[in-house]
Each structure stands twice: as structure tokens, then as C-alpha cells.
Specification:
alpha/beta, two-stranded antiparallel sheet, 11% strand, globular
């Protein structure tokens, strides 16, 4: 059985330089399963991307992994901090539908355009996002249109995540 070093904080550690400081191990059998339905959910978004308003963060590279984490967690509520145009929320909603996973979808984003623009400016002038202002100007209305396009139910909490929104106090999320 192959073993992979597992950090105390719960994340897998890469074995850099042949050693790691943590001593806990996890077998590869205990790693997160990647679900075929995760690929299906991402494929549905991709096949209808011309109907999607805005952009998909990181070009969708991590969506299969996110969807698989939701599938592995099973029934329960999902919270997303930083929603932008809602691509990852669409994939989570599609995945939950495909697998019959119960639970609500909560999206936290203050939709403060000026702050979002400042964050992008801090990244640097060579950032491709600086070339097309429309890629930065996500709105709750654009999110709503995207969620309606894919028939995904959600609750938008239009606040910052720190401090944690009162509306979500006492709620438990599986992802």
C-alpha cells in the first residue's frame, strides 16, 4: 500500500526535497475520490459557456476537484466565499442535482466593484483581467441570470465573510 504524508492541518503535503516535518500518514485508498459526475457537471457548464455571463475563475481548472469534494461530503449545505459570476456555484448545483445530494447552496460576496478592481490592480498591470473591464464587474444580477440559466437554487449573502455574516451564524456546512 502506498502512503502519502498527511499534515496536521488536514492537507496533503508535498514531499519537497525528500523530507517533511509531519509524521502522520494516510494511504492512497483514503484520498478523495474523483467522481465521473464531477466531470459531467463541469462538461455541462463548458458546453453552455456561451450562455454564461462573465468569466470562469482560473479557467475552470479546479472545478472537477471542487465538485468531487462536494460529492464526497454528501448531504448538507455548501458555502462559497467569493462568488464572482457563479461558475463554481453552478457546478456545485449541477453536481448536487446529478447525484441527488440534499442541501442548500449559500454564496457570500459583497459585490464591491471598487475593491475587486483594487485587488486586481495589486496583482499587477500585466494581468490579463486588466485588459477587459467587464471581466471584473460581476454583479448580483449577473449571478442571478447565470444561476437561472442552469436552474440552480441559491441564497446570496451580499456581505463580507469577515466578520462572519449574522445570517449564517449557527449554520453548519459540509463544504
Amino acid at each position: 500500500m502506498e502512503a502519502i504524508r498527511h499534515g496536521r492541518a488536514g492537507g496533503l503535503l508535498h514531499n519537497v526535497g525528500g523530507y517533511s516535518r509531519h509524521s502522520d500518514f494516510v494511504s492512497t485508498e483514503e484520498l478523495v475520490k474523483i467522481y465521473p459526475e464531477a466531470f459531467e457537471a463541469v462538461k455541462e457548464l463548458g458546453s453552455r459557456v456561451n450562455e454564461f455571463e462573465g468569466r470562469v475563475a482560473d479557467a475552470g481548472v479546479n472545478l472537477v476537484f471542487l465538485a468531487s469534494m462536494v460529492a464526497n461530503a454528501g448531504d448538507g449545505d455548501h458555502v462559497e466565499v467569493g462568488t464572482l459570476f457563479g461558475a463554481s456555484a453552478v457546478v456545485v448545483g449541477l453536481l448536487k442535482r446529478l447525484l441527488g445530494i440534499k442541501g442548500d447552496l449559500y454564496l457570500i460576496d459583497p459585490y464591491n466593484d471598487e475593491e475587486r478592481r483594487e485587488d486586481i490592480r495589486m496583482i499587477g498591470k500585466d494581468n490579463k483581467l486588466m485588459e477587459d473591464d467587464s471581466l471584473l464587474t460581476a454583479t448580483p444580477e449577473a449571478l442571478q441570470r447565470n444561476m437561472e440559466t442552469f436552474d440552480i437554487e441559491y441564497t446570496l449573502v451580499q456581505e463580507y465573510s469577515n466578520p462572519w455574516p449574522e445570517q449564517l451564524e449557527g449554520k453548519t456546512f459540509v463544504t
